[in-house]
């Protein structure tokens, strides 16, 4: 008791009393200050209407698109600068700081190639103030994490009596976005870090006429897509999932991707692009992405064959025979779990495409240069209903590409008539002058024919021919005269590249073999300890009764693939090694003493 009194006695002294008073007064004042500050901010906030727009929903894109056009955005004091243009219509700024519209900017780029387009994006976690229809909007882009998932959000606050101003803003942003979309194709890329779709910009629509394919192919494909989009009820009545898949396969540079973009433009659809071989792509992320594809769009799976060169294929999984047989220690098991988590499997892909979460009404387009590498399950009807083979250019294609490439004098279109039949006086739209000479129509046809004669059938890709013409874009006549020489050079170059590739592959094969030999040798050297699993084998049976050589127990290891069984007797170096057949069969003992 005395001890307690001694301990408390300093508290009764004057100094401690004063200190305590100070602490109490200070604490009270601070609490009061905080309470009043939060009350004030609560009071101020009570005047604000706040709307949240999640990245997973359309209004987020509309608003970002709208914001990217606001001059105040460019003058904002905190922003991310990117040379990746948000949209061709986005407010852009040269490095000198002047705001320019697109046409001016193009001119600038011609005059001064060092000047680059710079786009402004809202910095995350910063607030921007924008004046809109008599109101000050406070706009904040935030990143949030919910249920282990990252996503972005746009928060817009405004002082107003009701939410009419926010409704108006969203509608205007939507109208603006859709107006731009009329002439553009919006492209979204799969973000494998967040498992979300990221808007990467809008591309000018590419006219179907600029794609040169054998007659009928484009029309057939377009008609099929249109027919599908109009057949929702037909599919519903028959209980068939409302989806259609198109597999475009064939040589590189033959127009697969270009055709898809063109169709998207023609049908007014957005494109959602997934590269299955992208770093970080796994079953989970793909399923999430597929669940977030809107109902009417083009889903583009690029380089379909590339995805499964590194992952675990469905066949390996389904037979239960993993590619490498291992006995996971706890840390190794964690690695395996992580690996599984970051791997894309064929079954994962099929589930994502067909699963309940998969969007209805989407057009699935898949491209590949190696159709022979595809698993038949992936390309079967129901998943890929229409297949189109893209080949190297025919002579007819070469001729058409040439005609499309060079400008020629076209006859003036007839003057439109008024309802009374009087010709209207219309001012011709000023056209940008194309570089190079403008040919007569007949001359162009003649040159195109001569050009096509020099191009070998089904040997050069359309992209290669286009590349050659680009180099001669102001010299149509010379392009024809020099094309034979180019073909020879191109062949030589391809021969050289082929040789180099073969040499590289041969070297890689040798290297692989060498590594395999080394691994085998290392395996032989590692003697399995008694009671421990044999590396590389997945079934272990301890059969101490089958053999009675020496004193140690015997381990029998069955190779899952070959059913071959070996047994080894433990013991010191220099003692016996025994091989036996499987447990039930008779011992084919080859004992040896080293
Ligand atoms: N049939 C074609 N008609 C018009 N242009 C074409 C055609 N084929 C290729 N091109 C041109 O070649 C370039 C490459 O074409 P694209 O990317 O569409 O080929 P791809 O078949 O998708 O190639 P990859 O398989 O390598 O992805 C584009 O600039 C495109 O304009």
UniProtKB/TrEMBL annotation:
The keyword Cell division does not apply. Residues 313-338, 410-439, 493-535, 552-594 are annotated as: Disordered. Keywords: ATP-binding, Hydrolase, Membrane, Mitochondrion, Mitochondrion inner membrane, Nucleotide-binding, Transmembrane, Transmembrane helix. Residues 579-594 have a biased composition (Low complexity). Residues 319-330 have a biased composition (Polar residues). Belongs to the AAA ATPase family. BCS1 subfamily. This is P-loop containing nucleoside triphosphate hydrolase protein. It comes from Thelephora terrestris.
């Amino acid at each position: 008791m005395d001890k307690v009194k001694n301990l408390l006695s300093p508290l009764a002294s004057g100094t401690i009393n004063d200190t305590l008073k100070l602490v109490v007064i200070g604490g009270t004042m601070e609490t009061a200050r905080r309470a009043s500050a939060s009350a004030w901010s609560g009071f101020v906030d009570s005047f604000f209407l706040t709307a949240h727009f999640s990245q997973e929903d359309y209004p987020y894109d509309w608003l970002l698109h709208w914001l990217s056009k606001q001059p105040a955005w460019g003058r904002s004091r905190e922003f991310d600068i990117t040379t990746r243009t948000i949209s061709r219509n986005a407010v852009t700024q040269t490095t000198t700081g002047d705001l320019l519209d697109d046409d001016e900017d193009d001119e600038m780029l011609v005059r001064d190639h060092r000047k680059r387009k710079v786009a402004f994006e809202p910095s995350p976690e910063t607030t921007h103030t924008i004046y809109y229809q008599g109101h000050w909007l406070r706009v904040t882009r935030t990143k949030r994490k919910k249920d282990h998932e990252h996503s972005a959000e746009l928060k817009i606050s405004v002082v107003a009596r009701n939410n009419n101003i926010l409704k108006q803003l969203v509608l205007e942003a939507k109208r603006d976005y859709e107006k731009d979309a009329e002439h553009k194709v919006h492209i979204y890329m799969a973000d494998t870090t967040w498992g979300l779709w990221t808007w990467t910009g809008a591309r000018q629509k590419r006219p179907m006429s600029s794609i040169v394919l054998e007659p009928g192919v484009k029309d057939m494909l377009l008609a099929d897509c249109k027919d599908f989009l109009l057949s929702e009820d037909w599919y519903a009545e028959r209980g068939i999932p409302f989806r259609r898949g198109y597999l475009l396969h064939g040589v590189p540079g033959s127009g697969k991707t270009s055709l898809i973009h063109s169709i998207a433009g023609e049908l007014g659809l957005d494109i959602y692009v997934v590269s299955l071989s992208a770093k970080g792509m796994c079953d989970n992320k793909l399923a999430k992405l597929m669940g977030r594809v809107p109902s009417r769009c083009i889903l583009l799976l690029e380089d379909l064959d590339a995805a499964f060169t590194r992952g675990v294929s469905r066949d390996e999984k389904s037979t239960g025979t993993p590619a490498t047989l291992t006995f996971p220690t706890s840390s190794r098991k964690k690695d395996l779990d992580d690996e599984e988590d970051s791997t894309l499997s064929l079954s994962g892909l099929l589930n994502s495409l067909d699963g309940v979460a998969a969007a209805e009404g989407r057009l699935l387009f898949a491209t590949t240069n190696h159709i022979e590498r595809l698993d038949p399950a992936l390309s079967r009807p129901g998943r890929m209903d229409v297949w189109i083979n893209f080949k190297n250019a025919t002579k007819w294609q070469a001729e058409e590409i040439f005609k499309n490439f060079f400008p020629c004098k076209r006859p003036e279109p007839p003057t439109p008539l008024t309802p009374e039949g009087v010709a209207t006086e219309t001012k011709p739209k000023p056209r940008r002058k194309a570089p190079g000479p403008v040919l007569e129509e007949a001359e162009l046809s003649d040159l195109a024919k001569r050009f096509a004669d020099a191009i070998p059938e089904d040997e050069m890709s359309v992209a290669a021919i286009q590349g050659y013409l680009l180099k001669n874009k102001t010299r149509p006549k010379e392009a024809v005269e020099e094309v034979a020489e180019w073909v020879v050079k191109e062949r030589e170059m391809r021969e050289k590249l082929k040789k180099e590739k073969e040499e590289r592959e041969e070297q890689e094969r040798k290297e692989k073999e060498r590594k395999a030999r080394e691994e085998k040798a290392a395996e032989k050297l590692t003697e399995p300890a008694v009671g421990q699993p044999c590396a590389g084998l997945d079934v272990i049976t301890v059969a101490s009764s089958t053999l009675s050589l020496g004193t140690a127990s015997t381990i029998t290891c069955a190779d899952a693939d070959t059913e071959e069984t070996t047994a080894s007797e433990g013991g010191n170096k220099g003692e016996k090694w025994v091989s036996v057949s499987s447990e039930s069969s008779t011992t084919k003992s080859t004992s040896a003493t080293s």
